[in-house]
Specification:
The strands form 3 sheets. This protein has a 7-stranded mixed β-sheet. The radius of gyration is 25 Å and the shape is globular. α8 crosses α13 and α12 packs across α13. β12 and β13 form a beta hairpin. It has about 525 residues and is α+β, with helices and mostly antiparallel strands. The longest helix has about 35 residues.
Length: about 525
């Protein structure tokens, strides 16, 4: 009886996705065109809150003190509590119209944000799986609880660490984490042993608020702290540049050049808009680094902290330090991976129809490339087992390395059994001798319905099937929990930030303002 119920419920959920795909596609286009940057996804979050309430969910807007986050819940009685989530932040300076040519979204500049990964389809695809599951539960009397969180600022690992510290993942039995992907071999599969690694992100703010104490030889007759004829304090900008230069020069001295680690920096604008004849009062720089493990991340942190201390001293400034994120490497769960992949096999990989092929060929033609009969990367329309993907991935890594790349889903894996899976986003085959396609090509393919809708379709059905398995087969939830508990006991890994940690929403992140109905960047 259980197997019959399971099979019928999956068929019901799959039909829901198919019948609602036009509506899901419209929803995706809306979020994709909003393209709001990290911590500033006001309209995107509002849309999700309104949509979920209309679908019968109880929704907390602004969850965990994050204005653009939310937490939704719907229950159909006693049973497992399952969670998936939405992301919706876009990347500055990547605006791209859903077009076969390079041009920004209508009404904004090329410097406005755009969806690159795209997180727009991440959110709508998981929403499809969530609503399809809810529909099947209602139709077939399946009991349990569905939770759905809105996770802003993923590009900064911004929200999941906060939701975790505030208890939003407590008492969850299983979590499904999805991302559209094409980075081989992780395409149309689930992660097996090698999860994402550690991620640290920190802002150093240099403040020069006592310039009058820089030199005792200042003009004693001047009525102001530093006369125009006196030697001025170097100021915050100088501290920032010392930090920037020293850290760039010392990059090779932070860690060995193995393990796929990386360090990125960004200078945050903070009111230093004019060249006045006063020392710059404030300057900010953000560093984000990805490493296979916490020990390596701490080595980088020690170098950066030391550089900041000495840069501030040289420029007569003090430092304020603000953590953005501090994420642990992920925990794997084989039970969850096997359940998920069995449902991905049931659904099959995305397939690109004649309209999608024609669009891809037009992009190639516009780039001066001879259109290909089959323009999409072959692997985007194929499945690969988690075990085979793991084998191929390990061929590219040192034997000691246990984790690779970064994504903030890793924090979720420390609260409940979690599976991380990937469904392909559309990607084109490289033309011989031409190298990589321009970045706008993949951005555009992520917004054109004919090319991105297959991702929504496959993902929604796969998540719904996985949830239905977990809701109707309690032995799977028990096995996943047993594995989770064993792995936690074998390798305890406490949170890296204090429970009182506050999300850094007030820093001067890239933002926009409204001019009537338009957003101006």
């Amino acid at each position: 009886m259980t197997e019959i119920l399971n099979t019928e419920a999956k068929a019901t959920a799959e039909r829901w996705v198919e019948e609602n795909l036009p509506r899901l596609s419209e929803w995706h286009t809306h979020i994709w065109r909003l393209a709001e940057p990290a911590w500033r996804e006001y309209q995107s979050a509002e849309w999700y809150v309104e949509r979920l309430r209309a679908e019968g969910f109880e929704v907390e807007a602004g969850s965990a003190g994050m204005p653009t986050a939310f937490a939704a819940e719907w229950s159909n009685g006693d049973g497992p509590t399952l969670l998936t989530y939405a992301e919706y932040d876009a990347v500055p300076a990547n605006s791209q119209e859903a077009s076969t040519e390079r041009k920004p979204i209508e009404g904004v500049s090329e410097h406005a944000p755009g969806h690159t990964d795209p997180h727009s389809v991440l959110g709508i695809s998981t929403l499809a799986g969530l609503l399809a599951t809810k529909h099947a539960m209602e139709q077939h009397g399946i009991t349990g609880t569905l939770k759905y969180t809105g996770e802003p600022a993923e590009k900064m690992h911004g929200s999941k660490v906060v939701h975790g510290l505030r208890g939003y993942y407590d008492n969850v039995d299983a979590i499904v984490s999805f991302h559209p992907f094409y980075m081989l071999p992780l395409c149309n599969t689930a992660r097996w042993d090698t999860q994402c690694g550690a991620y640290y992100s920190k802002v150093y703010t240099f403040i020069c608020d006592e310039p009058e104490t820089w030199q005792l030889s200042a003009n004693p007759n001047s009525p102001i702290p530093a006369s125009h004829s006196a030697a001025r304090a170097p100021g915050a900008n100088v501290a920032l540049m010392q930090m920037y230069t020293a850290s760039r020069v010392m990059h090779d001295a932070m860690l060995p050049s193995v393990g796929g680690w990386s360090l990125s920096d960004a200078i945050l604008t903070d009111g230093q808009a004019t060249a006045d004849n006063l020392p710059a009062r404030t300057a900010r720089i953000q560093y984000s680094w990805r490493t296979p493990n916490i020990e390596m991340a701490e080595h980088v942190l020690a170098v950066l902290d030391r550089n900041a201390e000495h840069a501030a001293a040289m420029a007569h400034a003090r430092i304020e330090e603000t953590w953005i994120a501090r994420s642990r490497p992920g925990r794997t769960n084989h039970v969850m991976a096997e359940v998920l992949f069995s449902n991905l096999e049931r659904v099959g990989a995305p397939q690109y129809g004649d309209e999608a092929i024609s669009i891809a060929q037009e992009i190639q033609r516009n780039l001066g490339i001879e259109p290909m009969e089959k323009p999409f990367l072959t692997e985007t329309e194929q499945l690969i087992t988690p075990q085979e993907a793991e084998r191929l991935l390990r061929e590219e890594m040192p034997a000691w390395q246990r984790n690779w790349t970064s994504d903030d889903y890793v924090e979720m894996t420390h609260y409940a059994p979690t599976v991380r899976f990937y469904v392909s986003r559309p990607a084109l085959k490289p033309a011989p001798g031409r190298g990589a396609y321009p970045a706008w090509v993949m951005n555009a393919l992520g917004g054109i319905p004919e090319t991105i809708d297959p991702t929504i379709d496959v993902t929604g059905k796969t998540i719904a099937g996985t949830f239905i398995d977990l809701l109707t087969k309690p032995e799977l939830v028990s096995a996943a929990k047993e594995e989770f508990d064993r792995r936690v006991a074998e390798e305890p890994m406490p949170a890296l930030l204090d429970p009182s940690f506050e999300p850094p929403i007030d820093l001067p992140w890239p933002d926009y303002r409204h001019d009537g109905d338009k957003r101006v960047w």
